[in-house]
Structure formats: C-alpha cells, structure tokens
Amino acid sequence: MTTADHAPAPLSRALLVWGTAIVAYIVAILHRTSLGVAGIDAVERFHATAAVLSLFVVVQLVVYAAAQIPVGVVLDRLGPRKLIATGAALMAVGQLGMALAESVPLAIVARVLIGAGDAMTFVSLLRLLPSWFSPRRVPLFTQLTGILGQLGQVASALPFVYLLHEGGWTTAFTTVAVVGAVAAVLVVALVRDRPAPPAPGEPHEAPHVVHAPRPDAALVDGVLPDLSLRAVLRTPGSWLGFWTHQLTAFSLTTFVLLWGYPFLVLGQGLTPQEAGALLTLNVIIAIVAGPLLGEFTARRPARRSRMILVIAVLMVVAWASVLVPATPRPMWQLVIFIVLLSLGGPASMMGFDFVRTSNPPGRLGAATGLANMGGFLGALVTTFAIGLVLDVVRPDGRYVLDDFRIALSVIAVPFAVGFVGLLVSRRAVWREMGRLPPARGA
C-alpha cells in the first residue's frame, strides 16, 4: 500500500495556507534584499569599505547556507508551520537590530539573525506544497512560490528605498521589522502543516489517500524508506538539485543582494530610479517565465537538465555582454542582460523538482535544504570575492566601470564549477535511471 504525501483538502483552504506562507516568504525576501539597495547608505553609516560591506551579506549567506541541512532535518520532524513562524520572528528581531546598529559588529549580529530566520522559510514553504496540492500541481506551485516571493525584492527596490531616503535608516528598518512580526503572527494563526484527516463517513476528494500520522511515516511501495541524512547525500537526484540551484542562482543572487545596484549606478551611470526599475524587471521576467518552466517540468521531466544547461549558457552570454565592453551599455542592452540573468530564478526552482522526484516524503526537508545550499554557497563566495577585488583595484571606494568589470569577472569560476557539477550529477542520475521509472528522469 502506498501513501501520498498530500491529503485531500478544499482548494480554497490549500490556497489560504499557501498564501499565508507566501506572505511570510515575501517578507523574508524583503529582509534578505533590503541591505542591497541600502548598500551606499550602509557605507556612510558604518564607514565601511567594500570588503566590510560585502561581509554583511556574506555572513548572512554563510548562516543561511550552513543552516540548510540542519533546518531540513528539523523540518522533517517538527513541520513547516513552526519553522516559518520562528524564522519570521528571528528576521524581525534582526531588522530591528539593523535599525538601531551604529557599529559593524552589531550590524553583523543582526545579519546573522536575518540569515538564520531566512534559512527556515523557503525550504519549509516548499515542504508544505506536497501536503496540500496534488503531485501534478506541485511543479507549478513551486514556480509560483519563487515568483511571488520575489515581490519582496520589489518592496525593497521601491517602498523601502522611499522610506530609506525620506525617513532615514532607522525608520526604514524599523518598519520592515514590524512587517516581519505581523507575518509571524499570521503564520501561527493560519498555516497548518497538512489537512486534517476527514471524519468517518465524511466525503472527500481522494478516498484512496491514506493519512499517515507523520510525513516520515509514509510508505513507498509498501516499504518504509531510509530517512537518514546519509540516504539524502547518497541520492544522485539530491545533488542534481544542488548543482542546478548553484549554477542558475548564484550570480543572480550576488547581483540582487549587493553588487547589482552599485554596478548599475556607479558603473553603468544609471540613476537610482533606473537601477531600481531594472531590478524590478527581474521579478516581471520571473512572473512570465516561471509558470512556463513549471509546466515544462511537469510535462517533460526527462528534459529538465537540458533546459537548465540552455538557460545557464544564456546567463553566461548575458554577463559577457556587459563585462567585456569597456564602455557603459545602452539601456536596451542592460534590459536584455537583466532578462537573461533573471531566467536563473525560475530555472533554479527546477532543482527542487529533482529533489522531490528522487526522495521519499519523509526526507524531503533535508534534501531540499541540500539543494537550496547550492546557489547560496556560490553567492556568498562570489559576493565576498567581488568585494575583495574592488578593495584591491580601487582602495578609495570611488568605483568606475573598469573596477566592476574586473571584480565581477570572478563569476567565471563558480560558473565553471557549476557546469561540471551539473554534468557529473546528471550522469549519475542517468546511471540510476536504469532502475527508476522514466518520470523520475533528468
């Protein structure tokens, strides 16, 4: 007897639970990206060099990445609701710390709290999906999760920047902290880990589904699966998810979290408003591309990795188009750059589908955490390396385009590593496919 990881529930109830968790995720992205648009203000407030400024983001990313597997293991045991609420509360405290901090050490402590809370949010939200939606709908809702979460980036690029410039540092970050606290309360009130089992005799949509008391109690083909972390690490599909996320997400994350705004304003000569509009375009592209890639994933699972490789090549071409020329690019070319770079967001979400189709429900949290580490490990190394190079080539901090061209070129290394990792892990999945159903291909 096989149990599904989802239970029958009215779609309206499923959407309410998912929508509330999405609100928490949007606020988490706002917390995550707020320092990126406040980078120039942070230099003045903390009298920081480029290396110190990048350290704020790197510390946040180190905590985020390091927490992924531990959070995933705890998630499989405690459930998504507790972790999403705890994460929202931690980030609210962290943003309040940023509002009050006037020294680098205090700001770093605040970023640690934000990174820890952020680490609990996304993987927990993904863990909700198979509990509330049918397997056919999960790829689409995975993409929608990534898309809607990026509204937090829009909030940091527009209303947060307005608050920062009009009300000042303390007002802007305190406001975001209050929003985070409200998100935590909403999660506690409205989110549940899974639908309640129907009462005896009560009609429901899928009578064949057997309700397991815990997600890790589900049987797979009548056998209790190995739910250990070791099993996650031995599964090729887990690593294919890791390298997919690394290859497609790391440069976009680096660009959005810190170096994109200075590059566009100081390197390309755009106004803050123009730079904010381009950063917002990233979200629009995700809204368009995400559902298309989600439907492609559901219909053509055996071609997922091929699509990932195509998108990664397009991202490399996009970076070359703005880093090779020695003069600022016209706006139309920067728009194309952002469009191609932004494809990495929805493409990285495809990595979680490799995880979902390669692991039993009871270890999805740990496996999702492993995959989610990929892009953020690449981003933290890249972000810090860019800051170090900028300090070497322009110690006075008066950056020009050539400085960014040199510093941002370090992205070539993680791109190369990501391509190799993806190809190696894909071959491992192909070898395993000899004993797996075709739908679980790559």
Automatic annotation (TrEMBL):
Question: What's its membrane topology?
Answer: Multi-pass membrane protein
Q: Tell me, in one coarse class, where this protein mainly resides.
A: membrane
Q: Kindly give the SUPFAM superfamilies that the UniProt entry links to this protein.
A: MFS general substrate transporter
> What UniProt keywords apply to this chain's record, in alphabetical order?
Cell membrane, Membrane, Transmembrane, Transmembrane helix
GO MF assignments: transmembrane transporter activity
Q: State the signal peptide span.
A: none
Question: Would you tell me the protein name for this molecule?
Answer: Sugar phosphate permease
Task: State the organism named in the record.
Answer: Sanguibacter antarcticus
